Prior knowledge:
With 142 residues, the chain is an all-alpha fold. The chain is built from 6 helices and no strands. Helices cover 80% and strands 0% of the residues. The longest helix has 49 residues, at 50-98. The relative contact order is 0.06.
Amino acid sequence: MTQQEFQKLTGTEVTSDTYDYIQRIYMAAGDMDKKSFCEDWRDGFVCESKIVSHLVNEVEVCRTTISNYENRLENDANSLKTLIDSFVDFLVYEAEHYSAPALRDKAIKLVGIREYLRRKIAAGFELWKEDREALDEILKTK
Length: 142
């Protein structure tokens, strides 16, 4: 809601500083519609309330905390993806070096057969019989 909308709906003029405070309360009110908010404001239920002011501060702290956790979670997820990618590359190389089907199977469990084959081909390794059969099945279905 803009300052002009607020002033029109309440029939009152407010300074930009006052509107900043009003906007904080409005945002803290969640999905409350503009009209209901302005009616309550006009009726004097919120404009001078110390309780509302305190609750707005608490809501803002909670939202900031949630945002910080979301950012940390996203960073952790990106780090985990990078770690898994490195581990899968390691498994592909080690499976090839030691001719180890068990390592191949672990890599496939982590990223799927398509991605395993893509990485193996990109690394320039020859396809094993199982790889050729899997690739043949993939190409048949598409």
